[in-house]
Amino acid sequence: MTRTTGSAIRHSLRWLTACATLLTMTTHAQTMNTNKTELATLGGGCFWCTEALYQMLPGVKSAVSGYAGGEQPNPTYQEVCSGRTGHAEVIQIEFDPAILSYAKVLKTFWEAHDPTTLNRQGADVGTQYRSIILYHSDEQKAAAEKSKAEAQKQFKDPIVTQIAPLTKFWPAEDYHQQYYARNPNAGYCRAVIRPKVEKFQKKLKAEKN
User: pTM of the full predicted structure?
Assistant: First the structure.
């Protein structure tokens, strides 16, 4: 091997190594962008119901039941049910905006409950069951207000949904998480949640077709 040939080979190897490094960095950056998620916090009555529906929505990474909108720290389920904490039953959704837009999250919210009944969803009555959107940014606030105005066209009665900034989200007790998935045959699940889940499944299937 001549000196010239050896130098050319070393130069080629360095060039190939640099290209491989650049390709790895680009792929990593693309992966990072793809994995970027956002949060949405919503309350539409019993969190068992809304959690079960959002868990089926493509793009949702997780849905956690919890409490928000009040002032008492570390509230328990019993305290929230008393109506004295100011908190509402909510879910916090982590979603991939590359798959699911915040606008779609809100559209599903209006479809998942009745936003025209004040402090009530069906037989569940109390301020903890109020309809509420807790925004994480000014962009979410603007989107929520716009979505609410558009949704009003679909309802005869005024929408009473509260739109407020999220100050703190308190995850609910473990036994509330994935309640429908873990207790599908419980009385409330069969009577209240299952019909909503089946209706939503049909809707999602229709959207694919």
Answer: 0.82
